[in-house]
Design goal:
Strand order of the largest sheet: 3-2-1-4-5-7-6
Number of domains: 1
Structural class: alpha/beta
CATH architecture: 3-Layer(aba) Sandwich
Protein name: Methyltransferase type 11 domain-containing protein
Number of helices: 6
CATH class: Alpha Beta
Strand content: 15-25%
Order of helices and strands: HHEEEEHEHEHHE
GO molecular function: S-adenosylmethionine-dependent methyltransferase activity
CATH superfamily: Vaccinia Virus protein VP39
């Protein structure tokens, strides 16, 4: 994941980033893949036919597109559409979800990760935090089915990660004790975020 050992020790989001990478790696890798808000395109290595988009060219291969408005692709173009840690940065996320549905092929998969609790970041483009119920409503409203939403980390780890984000010297404790605690977590009412999968009907 490109994080050195030293960086890992003081990186308060090590576990959620690892879980996100595993989540993306578990998605269908065959077919055409669209990554909305791809940034550097770090997930491209996982897919054979990968199209990254972003509002600016942080990756030379990116298609410049504003998901707040429309995606510059024909309807039914992709087998998988991803939005990893993106929807919170869109002032009209419902438009992006609707556009994802439009450009998906019938039977295609939409996948996203969204934050529930985290500090302000990428200001001033940080607009939303999401409960699983809000995400489910967005997806149902545009026609998605087979919606599956999983919490990303539980109550104890979230509290530790938030503390380590403020005081970075505590990150090693979060990345060891917090990780071990997460293996036995039973309370997911305060997740850092949610991982989402849904299908476009055939």
């Amino acid at each position: 994941m490109g994080i050195s050992a030293l960086k890992f020790i003081f990186y308060s989001r090590w576990l959620p980033r690892r879980l996100q990478y595993r989540f993306v790696a578990s998605l269908p890798s065959d077919g055409k893949v669209l990554d909305i808000g791809a940034g550097s395109g770090k997930y491209g290595r996982l897919f054979k036919d990968y199209t990254p988009t972003d509002v600016e060219a942080r990756n030379p291969a990116s298609v410049i597109a504003d998901a707040n408005v429309a995606l510059p692709f024909p309807s039914g173009s992709f087998d998988l559409v991803m939005a990893i840690e993106v929807l919170e940065h869109l002032h009209t996320p419902t438009v992006a979800v609707r556009e994802a549905f439009r450009v998906l092929k019938q039977g295609g998969t939409f996948a996203a990760t969204v934050p529930f609790v985290w500090k302000l970041h990428e200001e001033p483009h940080d607009f939303h935090r999401y409960t699983k119920y809000a995400v489910e409503k967005y997806l149902k409203d545009v026609g998605f089915i087979e919606i599956a939403i999983e919490p990303e980390c539980g109550y104890v780890y979230t509290l530790m990660a938030l503390t380590a984000a403020k005081w970075r010297f505590l990150a090693p404790l979060t990345n060891t004790t917090g990780y071990l605690a997460s293996l036995f977590e039973k309370d997911f009412s305060l997740p850092l975020g949610n991982r989402v999968r849904a299908k476009k009907p055939k």
